[in-house]
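Try this one yourself first.
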């Protein structure tokens, strides 16, 4: 059986799901399971295309939220912060006013991922424009923007487990 350390991304899930995941890992079927559910990668490869994609989502769901000034893929995220994406707010004094710039950075692991995974991460980071904490209101907003949010989050965690076990990047 796979050790609990290999399931660090899935620690909050119930045991009956973890048993199924361990079975997929032990039978060497986790990669096939993910490829079957998500056969293709998205085509959003550049930071410019990513900015447009995130801006379109923001315009559709969060028109009145503060603007996002920068969106980019970031190769340092998974290594340094143990995160999938980051939403940051940088405040600067301009004249007598305090100006805030909001940035979204998405881990480069999602440059070669299925469209649904990228959408889930983008929705998560956009939700932070309205809700700072990971609370009930935050997840309600995520599910409003992406109804399959919780399933996609679980599947992203399965993919991270696949990578943690030394598996290949499935859509690269």
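Now uncover the answer:
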């Amino acid at each position: 059986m796979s050790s609990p350390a290999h399931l660090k991304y899935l620690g909050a899930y119930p045991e009956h799901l973890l048993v199924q995941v361990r079975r997929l890992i032990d039978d060497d079927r986790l990669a096939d399971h993910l490829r079957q559910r998500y056969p293709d990668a998205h085509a959003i490869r550049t930071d410019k295309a990513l900015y447009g994609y995130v801006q379109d989502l923001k315009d559709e769901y969060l028109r009145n939220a503060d603007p996002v000034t920068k969106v980019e893929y970031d190769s340092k995220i998974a290594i340094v912060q143990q995160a999938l994406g980051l939403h940051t707010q940088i405040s600067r004094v301009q004249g007598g006013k305090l100006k805030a710039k909001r940035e979204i950075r998405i881990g480069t692991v999602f440059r070669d991922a299925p469209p649904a995974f990228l959408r889930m991460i983008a929705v998560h980071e956009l939700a932070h424009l309205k809700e700072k904490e990971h609370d009930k209101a935050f997840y309600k907003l995520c599910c409003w923007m992406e109804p399959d949010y919780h399933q996609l989050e679980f599947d992203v965690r399965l993919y991270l487990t696949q990578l943690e076990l030394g598996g290949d990047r499935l859509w690269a």
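Discussion: The chain has a mean pLDDT of 87. The beta strands are 70-74, 85-94, 97-107.
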